[in-house]
């Protein structure tokens, strides 16, 4: 039942527990207890709201930074990853396969602010060998949510 609960919560963390219990053929108390256990076990790590910042007045720029690093003896990539994810500008850090080792997702007000972070803080870390910065220009889909839905053409078809 845990995986089913997680599947529903991942799509909609605000789902009503009563509704979830009905869907899963269980009772509300059992569902609430199971969710509480998964929070305590850090299976559920948090709840987030997905926002389309382009529809607000707040300036927000996102960048994906590929980082090549020298792994630390006995710690691998964990030590440098921790150093990077402790910066408040950093939203996510992933160990990845390929030409680069880490993928760092940053958020800032402007391209210049992010570029300054990369050149002044990230690139100067002793283990960092190189970086490649990619700015997000437009989001089409994020966490399963489509942002750029096509507007439905509601004009009447006119034929001769």
Automatic annotation (TrEMBL):
InterPro entries: Dimeric_a/b-barrel, Tscrpt_reg_AsnC-like, Tscrpt_reg_AsnC/Lrp_C, WH-like_DNA-bd_sf, WH_DNA-bd_sf. GO terms for biological process: response to amino acid. It holds the Pfam family AsnC_trans_reg. Keywords: DNA-binding. Residues 65-138 form the Transcription regulator AsnC/Lrp ligand binding domain. It comes from Murimonas intestini. Coiled coil: none annotated. PANTHER family: LEUCINE-RESPONSIVE REGULATORY PROTEIN, TRANSCRIPTIONAL REGULATOR AZLB. One of its GO terms (cellular component) is cytosol. This is DNA-binding Lrp family transcriptional regulator. GO terms for molecular function: sequence-specific DNA binding.
